[in-house]
Write a structure and sequence with these properties.
Length: 440
């Protein structure tokens, strides 16, 4: 039986067996190379001068050592050649192993429960594999791209699922626009006319190329997030047109220009949510009147008190407003009642309490249900209490954060006005910059 086993060994196995036998019997003997003259070369040793006859003997020793060294070097060179061959042989064996493993796994999948899952079940699993981010980068190491790299069936299922390809985030740079455009086009095609959520970071790119990529999908874009790190958006109105189904718009700008505002004024009546991270003054806001009318949700980085009131007038259907407030420029405030605002989130830098009191004194919000204030120091308790009493609103949640403090007596006064209200004073409620960024 043992003889038959040896006869069936592969050539590689024969080589390995032979090497094992040779190595088991091989041993390098380290010779004793000491001579009467060895110690004479040691440091700090004072030997008498070498006699002439000794020099001839030492020369013969050196010649002998050179011959021994040449022989060892030849053996090392030969062994390295053998080792190179062994390493090459090992690489071939690893490649063979990988092919065998691949074949074995592909056949295992044929009988595995996961492989036999119905497409509908596999599709549901894929949905749960997606990150929770609103916009997804085209990264090969995360879903949905990762799902296309596991096996052919997974790829076929993933590519045919438009719900996996409806969210995309892409940086638009000159340096790699062509490569990004190819990947984005493949991604967007897989959305199969579904509504798209698209995030663009634009840095000095050819808008003609961008328009050629995005134009076939313009009427699919329902959520759009545009970031302009620099003052580059002169051509935005020409790049992004015919956004007929746009519902959610976020713009991050450092220096808003009239052309950008002009473009925004032509956005479709389907738009419901606008988030602007940048500075806009009252003149620019007024020019957006056609857009404001249909909005239900607005986030602005900073508004003056009179601009808050103007915005509420321009948005009769607004149900949620988030902003940081700043002082007026001397304008008198006119009282105003907004009948549909349900959520108001206000942040401050801690020094504008008086303007906030003025705003509370001018407002009536009969449908207010959620109010959140952050970093308002000191808190204008009396003015806000008057606002609640005047509005007679069904307030459900009253939250304070960012170092806002409140006495038990003040809390009791709010509850006395609205018995069902929940008053939360928690420093973990976001500060003004976190409050605004968290909704983008």
């Amino acid at each position: 039986m043992a003889a038959n086993s040896k006869a069936n060994l592969s050539p590689v196995s024969n080589i390995i067996f032979a090497l094992q036998v040779i190595l088991a019997r091989s041993q390098v003997i380290i010779p004793d190379l000491e001579t009467p003259y060895s110690q004479a070369s040691s440091l700090n040793t004072n030997y008498p001068a070498i006699e002439l006859k000794d020099r001839a003997v030492i020369g013969a020793i050196i010649t002998e050592r050179q011959q021994e060294l040449d022989a060892v070097l030849h053996e090392i060179s030969g062994l390295e050649t053998v080792m190179d061959g062994i390493n090459n042989l090992r690489r071939q064996l690893v490649k063979k192993k990988d092919k065998i493993t691949q074949s074995m796994n592909s056949h295992k999948r044929l009988i595995s429960t996961l492989w036999r899952l119905p497409t509908e079940v596999l599709s549901s699993i894929f949905i749960y594999c997606l990150p929770e981010d609103k916009y997804l980068p085209p990264a090969s190491g995360q879903a949905p791209m990762l799902l296309t790299r596991i096996c052919r069936r997974w790829r076929d299922v993933a590519v045919d699922m438009p719900s996996l390809w409806c969210r995309l985030s892409v940086d638009v740079h000159d340096g790699y626009w062509q490569r990004a455009a190819f990947g984005c086009n493949s991604w967007l095609k897989r959305s199969q006319q579904r509504p798209l959520s698209l995030a663009l970071t634009c840095v000095a790119c050819d808008t003609v190329e961008q328009r050629s990529l995005l134009q076939p999908y313009m009427n699919q874009i329902s959520s759009l997030n545009i970031h302009f790190p620099y003052s580059y958006y002169a051509d935005v109105p020409f790049m992004l047109t015919n956004l007929l189904t746009l519902q959610d718009l976020t713009i991050r700008v450092s220096d808003p220009q009239p052309r950008l505002v002009q473009w925004m004024s032509r956005l479709p009546p389907t738009l419901r949510s606008v988030k602007i991270m940048g500075l806009f003054d009252i003149e620019l806001l007024s020019s957006l009147n056609p857009v404001w009318f249909h909005l239900t949700d607005v986030h602005m980085t900073i508004l003056r008190i009179n601009e808050v009131l103007l915005l509420l007038r321009l948005c009769p259907n607004l149900s949620s407003l988030t902003t940081r407030v700043a002082p007026n420029r001397g304008q008198a405030l006119v009282s105003f009642t907004h009948t549909k605002l349900q959520s108001l989130r206000i942040a401050d830098n801690g020094v504008f309490t008086r303007p906030l009191s003025d705003m509370f004194n001018a407002l009536s919000l009969p449908d207010l249900r959620v109010f959140e204030a952050s970093n308002v120091l000191p808190w204008p308790h009396e003015a806000f209490k008057t606002l609640l009493a005047r509005s007679n609103c069904p307030l459900e949640t009253l939250s304070f954060g960012g170092d806002v403090t409140m006495t038990d007596e003040q809390r009791a006064e709010y509850v006395a006005l609205i018995p069902s209200v929940e008053v939360v004073v928690d420093p973990r409620v976001p500060s003004w910059h976190v409050l605004l960024d968290s909704y983008v």
